[in-house]
Each structure stands twice: as structure tokens, then as C-alpha cells.
Write a structure and sequence with these properties.
By secondary structure, this protein is mostly helical. The protein has 7 helices and 3 strands. The longest helix is centred in the middle third of the chain and has 24 residues. 12% of the residues are buried. It comes from Micromonospora aurantiaca.
């Protein structure tokens, strides 16, 4: 069954699988089962297969384990992203559904962090907050470009001694209490 990118990612388990690979990780289904222990194994295997069949995950290695072939996967980030044209064509209801799925995944990540039993936001340099700034559309585009460049610089460091995989989640919206300048004309 052919699914578009939005439909692939609207599934909460598939979204969590994709998020588990962020940061250039190579994982097996056994690794995923450890990280997503609340997902039934049959569901996890089925959703990994769906993502692989649609090119979102690609196999980078295979090895025999207990009489079966265990595959190692990596994320095809381009295939796991909704392009701007596809986003423009989505209805408001579909955007709401996509955002809700995204937020549910974020909640699952935060719950997992808290459930470890040793959560210390100050020690772990973790947190959540909302900030605001005023900018034209051009200034906002420049901000996003510079932010992506800065993020890419740190993402390129990769795993290593003393490095902890960290999740950075962004949502950029015009404030609900403001009209866009073009709307005031």
C-alpha cells in the first residue's frame, strides 16, 4: 500500500521510530525494542517494515542472531520530511492531526526521561520554555537559516566520549495575538 509522507508520519509509533533514529543513529529492531519498550514487538516490527518499504529507513547491515537475520537501519531524513508543497496542500484538520501526533511523541520522550528515575533538569541541561521575538518574514527566514547552520555544526560532531544524545524540538509560529503586517493593509 502506497502512503504519502504525511500518512507515514501521522502514525504515532512510526513517528517515534523515526525520532529514535535522529542524530545519525544506526539501530536494530532490538535497539528499538529497548528504547520503545512500551510498543508491542509485533507492532514495532510491522511499523519498521512499513518505514523500510517506503524508503524512510534503509538497511545498512545484516547479521545472524539466534537463527534470524537482524538488520541495522539508518534514517533517510529526506524521506522522513514533509516538503513545503505537501505541507501547503494539507487541510487545517490534517495539520492539527500531524501536530497532535508530534506532541504525543514529545510527551512520550519526556515521560521516558522522567521515568528513568534520576531526572534532574539542571544537571542534564534539559528544560522547556517558550520565548517570543519580533521579526519580519525576511528576518525570520534569516533566523531559521542561521539556526539550522548552528544546529548542523553541532550535529556534525556525532557521538563520542562525554557526549549525550540530546533532542531539540522546535515549533515556530506567529503569535495568535498578532496580525501579520500584510493583513493590516
Amino acid at each position: 500500500m502506497a502512503l504519502d509522507t504525511v500518512e507515514l508520519l501521522l502514525h504515532p509509533v512510526r513517528l517515534r521510530i523515526v525520532q529514535a533514529f535522529l542524530g545519525g543513529r544506526t539501530l536494530t529492531t532490538t535497539d528499538l525494542r529497548t528504547g520503545l519498550s512500551d510498543v508491542p514487538p509485533a507492532t514495532l516490527y510491522r511499523q519498521v517494515a512499513t518505514l523500510a518499504d517506503h524508503g524512510v529507513l534503509h538497511t545498512v547491515g545484516e547479521r545472524r542472531a539466534r537463527g534470524a537475520v537482524e538488520r541495522s537501519y539508518r534514517l533517510n531524513e529526506a524521506a522522513a520530511s514533509v516538503d513545503p508543497d505537501e505541507a501547503r496542500s494539507m487541510s487545517p484538520q490534517r495539520h492539527r492531526q500531524a501536530f497532535l501526533t508530534f506532541v504525543a511523541g514529545l510527551l512520550a520522550d519526556f515521560d521516558g526521561y522522567l521515568d528513568r528515575g534520576d531526572a534532574d533538569l539542571a544537571r542534564d541541561v534539559a528544560g522547556y520554555r517558550q520565548n517570543a521575538f519580533h521579526a519580519t518574514d525576511a528576518e525570520t527566514a534569516e533566523f531559521v537559516t542561521r539556526f539550522r547552520d548552528l544546529f548542523a555544526e553541532y550535529a556534525a560532531l556525532g557521538p563520542g566520549p562525554g557526549r549525550t544524545r540530546r533532542l531539540l524540538t522546535t515549533v515556530l509560529l506567529p503569535a495568535a495575538d498578532q496580525e501579520r503586517p500584510a493583513d493590516r493593509r
